[in-house]
Structures are given as structure tokens and as C-alpha cells.
């Protein structure tokens, strides 16, 4: 499926790095079954909620997640779908770097 949707240089690098496609059903079962907006209340670190603008599944709950955490920041990758890091790797990386730079230094 990824090969049909994304450029070969993105997909092939992901496959070569050992992405465990066979583990996805179990992983999603764990995430979707255990982590909801209420669980955000116990997260003590700053949170970046980074979604693709056109990710209709995960965007439906992003406001609930953001409201549940006092230091959550929502950012969208324009025109990107669920795999925003594949749709626009540069924008995704820039967003993560901006977030990381605003974190307080450890220690």
C-alpha cells in the first residue's frame, strides 16, 4: 500500500530500516485500547500533537487531547494525511525541531 501512495525514496528507506508492518495490528490494538484523551492528564512532559491537516481519523480527537493536557500544542502539516511524515517530511521534521527547541533544558 505504501508503495502505491508514496515516493520510492521514502517508502524504501522505511522498509530497509526494518519497519515492522506485521506488528501493526497488535500495536494499534494497544494504543487505541489504552490511550485516550483522559490518559493525557497523567503525562508530565510538554506534548506536541502533530497531525496531517487531512488526517480525518486522528484529527477528530485532537481537541480533546489538547484540552486534557495543560501544555499540549497542536500543529498541523498542511495538505498532509495520516502519514504526515511521508506526505511532507521536511514540514514534519521542522515542526518536531521547533517543538524540541522550545523545551526547557534538562538538568
UniProtKB/TrEMBL annotation:
Q: Which Gene3D superfamilies match?
A: alpha/beta hydrolase
Question: InterPro entries from the entry?
Answer: AB_hydrolase_fold
Domain of life here? Answer: Bacteria
Q: What is this protein called?
A: Alpha/beta hydrolase
The organism encoding this protein is Streptomyces haneummycinicus
Amino acid at each position: 500500500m505504501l508503495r502505491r501512495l508514496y515516493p520510492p525514496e521514502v517508502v524504501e528507506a522505511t522498509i530497509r530500516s526494518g519497519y515492522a508492518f506485521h506488528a501493526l495490528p497488535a500495536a494499534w490494538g494497544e494504543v487505541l485500547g489504552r490511550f485516550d484523551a483522559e490518559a493525557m492528564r497523567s503525562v508530565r512532559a510538554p506534548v506536541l500533537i502533530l497531525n496531517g491537516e487531512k488526517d480525518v481519523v486522528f484529527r477528530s480527537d485532537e481537541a480533546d487531547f489538547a484540552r486534557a493536557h495543560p501544555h499540549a500544542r497542536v500543529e498541523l502539516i498542511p495538505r498532509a494525511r495520516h502519514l504526515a511524515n511521508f506526505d511532507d517530511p521536511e514540514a514534519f521534521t521542522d515542526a518536531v525541531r521547533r517543538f524540541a527547541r522550545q523545551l526547557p533544558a534538562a538538568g
